[in-house]
Specification:
The chain has 251 residues and is of the alpha+beta class. The protein folds into 2 domains: 24-37 and 171-250, 2-Layer Sandwich (Translation Initiation Factor IF3), CATH 3.30.110; 40-96 and 123-167, Alpha-Beta Plaits (2-Layer Sandwich). It is 35% helix and 35% strand. The chain has helices at 2-22, 53-73, 120-125, 146-157, 173-199, and strands at 24-35, 39-50, 81-93, 104-105, 115-116, 128-142, 162-163, 167-169, 202-215, 237-250. It is elongated, with a radius of gyration of 33 Å. The chain starts with a helix and ends with a strand.
Length: 251
């Protein structure tokens, strides 16, 4: 009897749950706001190799100083230039194996194996520090896209090793996202009302509202080569929002 009672209670609860779900309308609302990015960032890497770590770093620092001075001369605030990332890697190399004064014994077994005796194994395992690789990454933030074309050719002439694709963002992205979110909620409400009208029922109150999606552009790649007859352009980007809403159906 107890098992029958528990089963009946479970069926009743399941029925109530299904009934509540079936009496609602669940919809998704999506919206986007188009805007032009107004904040740009760029990373530049200067890398050198040398036998002396101090001299190699001094060369990297010299080139880094010239790059920073060039950006400041172009109107970039020194506070918008980050030069703190420095890396140093020691480079080890193994000398070539010399077979002089090595007794080579060919012990050919069924597996056709060859073994070496003498000091060959010792030579193979010895590694020597030969050079140092030192690099510095410089990150720059700026507001004018035209600056990208102006400085790109200059940094190449200064001997930088790598120029990253430019990154874009919106300084007031939250404001545009809130606009898109409001539009997404409005679209969800209109969609639910249309569904209710087509189904011949009356739309009730909002039971649930969940923010289920967000998108804002973070990267915009450009070629790492400046040309006098070409100016970089950027188009409007979308900041998107998405919500999931559930409305009740009035009896």
């Amino acid at each position: 009897m107890v098992r029958i009672f528990v089963s009946l209670v479970s069926l009743c609860l399941l029925s109530i749950s299904l009934s509540s779900y079936s009496n609602g309308i669940e919809v998704t609302g999506k919206a986007s706001v188009m805007t032009i990015p107004d904040t740009f960032s760029l990373t530049i890497t200067i890398k050198e190799r040398g036998k002396s770590s101090s001299k190699t770093k001094a060369l990297v620092d010299y080139k880094s100083s010239k790059v920073v001075k060039m950006f400041v001369k172009q109107g970039i605030n020194a506070n918008a230039i980050d030069t703190s990332q420095v890396r140093m890697f020691p480079i080890y190399e193994k000398p070539p194996i010399s077979f002089e004064n090595i007794e080579l014994q060919n012990k050919i077994s069924k597996q056709q194996k060859i073994t070496l005796s003498g000091n060959a194994d010792k030579q193979e395992n010895e590694s020597h520090l030969t050079r140092f690789e030192i690099s510095r990454t410089i990150a720059i933030s700026f507001k004018e896209l035209s600056l990208y074309d102006t400085v790109l050719d200059n940094v190449v002439k200064l001997g930088v090793s790598h120029i990253s694709p430019i990154e874009v963002s919106m300084s007031d992205s939250e404001k545009y996202y809130q606009q898109a979110l409001y539009m997404a909620i409005e679209k969800a409400q209109n969609k639910a009302a249309n569904i209710a009208r087509q189904a011949g029922v009356k739309l009730g109150t909002l039971l649930s509202l969940k923010e289920s999606g967000y998108h804002s552009p973070m990267r915009y790649s450009m070629a790492s080569e400046a040309r006098s007859d070409f100016s970089s352009k950027i188009t409007k980007k979308a900041i998107s929002a998405q919500v999931t809403a559930i409305y009740s159906i009035e009896p």
